[in-house]
């Protein structure tokens, strides 16, 4: 149970947070406006300096009043009502200046600056400054009410706010870090998870200024839903959230996504070694302590995205090399090495209890030399690709077909003899009916084949030799036929 003194500390922490967060965000937006004006070659107006000095004065006055009036030794009863009125007036004076100069700048820029996206951004940011100032005004009223002894209602005055009160989002600092971002990096999807909307908005603007795209989630459940809807390329995750704390949320992300597929940068006011180590241990890729420095923010975000892209390219390269090593380059089906390895593995399984009977068929396109002589090698290649496509369509997984050389193909089918005969009859018919168009000419082909069954030998090489000999017999007998161990299946004349 929280003590009376502890409860007071919690409320004071949140009161200060509600003031400092928007006040510091005003400085961030002023910095953003100045940088945007420099892009238009427009010098900073005096009004901007007035807003800065007023904001500095406001924060200094608030800090002085907060320390004075919240001191446990300070007696409220000794303060006259006029003193509280004077305090409210002193704090509101620089605040009114911020709002007033902000409105003047909006009017000036709407009149003087040419229409452009940057102009719209500047005006919108000035409106943010005015909105933040009005949020600060509400925080001042809450502060004065509290020190007068009036009851104040806080949105979330829980014990967790003792820690979160120190996690105030202060100025992000000047961005001096300049980097040229690739189109791939700019296309990245960044998810910002923070329960403070102002923090999210400032982070979004910082990232946007560098050409990066982002979306936001203000609590853990929303973050989980956003990731489920579309996995982002990077998450900026605050440690303290209202429903699910950041560390637990990180655990949930890691249960479904690897570090490589979903990098996470933790954000927190806790910058001690143990806190950082805990985040890294749970699978965070990096750690950003608050207050966040803009240069460090950009450097770590870009670095994480670049590492993710590099890993993806490495995977693509490995996959490409695997395809090259296992695939026939012309036809796109399995190559000789893969199909022979498959036969060897099937033969080994036959000796075990999980034995499955299988059938080997070696195909040969009839009179393929005549095809090359008539249509050239380019035409011959088209015939090979068309024939491979037909076989691949007819021989589905777990069965497999591959090209073993020239016009020869080999298939392994996990079927018995009776089923094999039916399959071959159907296949011969489809090959004969398969018309191939090349350079406006229709080409029809036939195929011969030799068939061997797994029960004929326990040796894979022996089975292949049997199928190859029967292929030779099929060719010698007139082609357009398949020879089995005790029978022959011929195509239509």
Write up what this structure looks like.
The protein is an alpha/beta fold. It folds into 3 domains: 4-164, Four Helix Bundle (Hemerythrin (Met), subunit A) (Up-down Bundle), CATH 1.20.120; 183-313, Rossmann fold; 336-490, 2-Layer Sandwich (Alpha-Beta Plaits). Helices cover 57% and strands 13% of the residues. The protein has 15 helices and 13 strands. It has helices at 4-39, 46-69, 81-112, 117-147, 161-164, 183-186, 197-209, 220-229, 246-256, 273-281, 294-326, 336-350, 368-394, 417-433, 460-476, and strands spanning 189-193, 213-217, 234-238, 264-268, 286-289, 359-365, 400-405, 408-413, 435-438, 441-444, 447-453, 481-483, 488-490. The strands form 3 sheets. The protein has a 6-stranded mixed β-sheet, with helices on both faces. Residues 156-177 have low confidence and may be disordered.
Strand and helix map with partners:
Elements: H1 4-39, H2 46-69, H3 81-112, H4 117-147, H5 161-164, H6 183-186, E1 189-193, H7 197-209, E2 213-217, H8 220-229, E3 234-238, H9 246-256, E4 264-268, H10 273-281, E5 286-289, H11 294-326, H12 336-350, E6 359-365, H13 368-394, E7 400-405, E8 408-413, H14 417-433, E9 435-438, E10 441-444, E11 447-453, H15 460-476, E12 481-483, E13 488-490
The low-confidence runs, each spanning 5 or more residues with pLDDT under 50, are 156-177
Give the count of structural domains.
3
Kindly provide the radius of gyration, computed on alpha-carbon positions and rounded to a whole number of angstroms: 37 Å
The strands making up the biggest β-sheet line up spatially as: 7-8-6-11-12-13
On the 0 to 100 scale, the average pLDDT is: 83
Largest sheet: 6 strands, mixed
CATH class assignment of the largest domain: Mainly Alpha
Q: Which architecture of the largest domain per CATH? A: Up-down Bundle
Q: Return the structural class.
A: alpha/beta
First-to-last CA distance: 95 Å
Number of beta-strand segments: 13
Helix content: 55-70%
Outline, from the CA principal axes?
elongated
H/E element order: HHHHHHEHEHEHEHEHHEHEEHEEEHEE
Strand content: 5-15%
- Named CATH topology of the largest domain: Four Helix Bundle (Hemerythrin (Met), subunit A)
Number of helices: 15
């Amino acid at each position: 149970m929280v003590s009376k003194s502890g409860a007071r500390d919690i409320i004071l922490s949140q009161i200060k947070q509600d003031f400092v967060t928007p006040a510091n965000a005003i400085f961030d937006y002023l910095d953003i406006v100045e940088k945007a004006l420099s892009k238009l070659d427009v010098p900073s107006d005096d009004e901007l300096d007035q807003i800065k000095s007023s904001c500095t004065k406001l924060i200094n006055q608030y800090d002085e009043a907060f320390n004075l009036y919240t001191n446990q030794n300070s007696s409220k009863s000794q303060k006259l009502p006029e003193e509280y009125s004077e305090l409210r007036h002193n704090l509101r004076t620089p605040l009114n200046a911020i709002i007033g100069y902000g409105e003047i700048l909006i009017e000036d820029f709407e009149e003087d600056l040419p229409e452009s996206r940057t102009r719209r951004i500047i005006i919108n940011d000035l409106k943010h400054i005015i909105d933040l100032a009005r949020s600060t005004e509400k925080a001042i009223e809450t502060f004065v009410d509290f020190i007068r002894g009036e009851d104040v209602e806080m949105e979330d005055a829980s014990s967790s706010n003792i820690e979160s009160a120190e996690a105030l989002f202060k100025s992000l600092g000047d961005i001096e870090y300049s980097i040229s971002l690739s189109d791939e990096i700019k296309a990245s999807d960044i998810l910002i998870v923070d329960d403070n909307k102002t923090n999210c908005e400032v982070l979004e603007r910082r990232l946007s200024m560098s050409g990066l795209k982002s979306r936001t989630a203000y609590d853990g459940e929303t973050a989980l839903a956003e990731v489920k809807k579309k996995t982002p390329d990077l998450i900026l995750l605050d440690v303290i959230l209202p429903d699910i704390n950041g560390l637990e949320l990180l655990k949930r992300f890691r249960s479904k996504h690897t570090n490589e597929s979903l990098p996470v940068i933790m954000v927190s006011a806790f910058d001690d070694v143990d806190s950082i180590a805990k985040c890294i241990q749970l699978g965070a890729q990096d750690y950003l302590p608050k207050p966040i420095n803009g240069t460090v923010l950009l450097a770590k975000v870009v670095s994480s995205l670049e590492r993710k892209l590099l890993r993806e390219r490495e995977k693509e390269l490995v996959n490409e090399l695997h395809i090259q090593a296992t695939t026939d380059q012309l036809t796109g089906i399995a190559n000789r090495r893969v199909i022979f390895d498959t036969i060897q593995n099937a033969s080994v399984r036959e000796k075990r209890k999980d034995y499955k009977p299988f059938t080997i068929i070696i195909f040969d396109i009839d009179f393929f030399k005549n095809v090359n002589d008539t249509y050239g090698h380019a035409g011959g290649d088209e015939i090979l690709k068309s024939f491979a496509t037909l076989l691949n369509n007819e021989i589905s997984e777990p069965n497999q077909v591959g090209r073993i050389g020239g016009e020869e193909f080999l298939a392994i089918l996990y079927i018995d003899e009776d089923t094999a005969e039916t399959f071959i009859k159907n296949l011969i018919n489809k090959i004969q009916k398969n018309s191939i168009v090349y350079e406006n000419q229709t080409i029809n082909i036939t195929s011969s084949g030799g068939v061997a069954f797994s029960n004929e030998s326990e040796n894979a090489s022996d089975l292949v030799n049997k199928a190859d000999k029967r292929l030779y017999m099929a060719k010698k007998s007139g082609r357009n036929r398949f020879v089995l161990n005790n029978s022959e299946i011929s195509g239509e004349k």
